[in-house]
Amino acid sequence: MQLDYGVMRAPARLIFGPGQRKALGRAAASLGSRALICTDTRLANSPLMQELLDDLAAHDVSVEVFDGTEPELPLEGIRDCVDRHREFRPEVIIGIGGGSCMDLAKMVSLLMKYPEPVSQYYGEFKVPGPIVPVIAIPTTAGTGSEVTPVAVIADSDRAVKVGISSPELIPHTAICDPELTLSCPAGLTAISGADAFAHALEAFSAIRRPPAPGMAMERVFVGKNVLSDQYALSAMRLIFANLEKAVKEGSDIEARSAVMLGSTYAGLAFGTAGTCAAHAIQYPVGAQTHTAHGLGIGVLLPYTMEFNVEACESVYAEVARAIGVDAGGTDHEAAHAGIAAVRALFQRIGIPVSLRELDVKDEDLDQIAELSMGAARLVENNPRILDKHSVRSILDKAMSGA
Fold it and tell me: Taking every annotated instance into account, which residue ranges of this chain make up the domain Alcohol dehydrogenase iron-type/glycerol dehydrogenase GldA (predicted)?
């Protein structure tokens, strides 16, 4: 293993453990006296929200709540939140919920400091400087947004979702309380966990670039490196061993804790290494079918692994041995056993085996392949060279379920 290059970016504070949501009041008060909470309607009307509001009040933090977060985070919703709460002049933004709530907090923080148009920030390193401090509190275990430099939004002027990637977007504080995932439904637990596993797998198998001085100041996602590898391997071990139990025995706090820790580790891994083919292809699949991100990722990952294996056989073998699938044999045997094990796990937790089950149409495959190539940073990060023809071959297999 090449050990000469690594990049680590993370929140200033990362607090993990059951019950740690009770640290919010003190954490927020250390950053300011006015807090804006970004969440959704369900959470805004829950006992959890009242508990958090009481804690903030006890620490003399005044609060406004925006409860209009929508799935897939449309740009119009971000502007609505900013317009409603700009005069409040929040000193800290708190994102509570799934990935969209945390990404909303990041985007509102950005637009509270810097002007429109939002499109000027699309891509990497376009955020001009620090944003309003963000506290991220996930209630699902999947996106890793609580620790990543990314916000993904839906812009009606674009065919697929777009990303803003900058170290400035990393939340100041992440509070990861596994108790908040206990009420997460089985189906959402499954697809969120599949997404988290894919984050770790794709970070670990991403292309390894020559360690040019200053690369981390020029690329948000530098590819496979010695620091992201450690988080990625730990994430895959935790998620593979515990996801099925978290899905099927949702009250098991140990399994929930392991999957949430794995998801956070995966976020730390891909936040510097980046992701690859499954994510590049999911964006247009999701746009075409209006299906959840993690669902598309779960369907696609085994097929992208089959495509990539010839370029990263030893890497996939290391993954297989780390998750306990194959302790011996050749790299070839271990790598293919690992792919089969991932496919089997996803099937056991209810992930569909084909894109056809997501209502993808044969006549849309060429367009999906072409749009996938538009995710340049993901395509370039893939361990095997991707072009429109090879993406189409992955799609064909994913449609057949073979």
Answer: 11-178
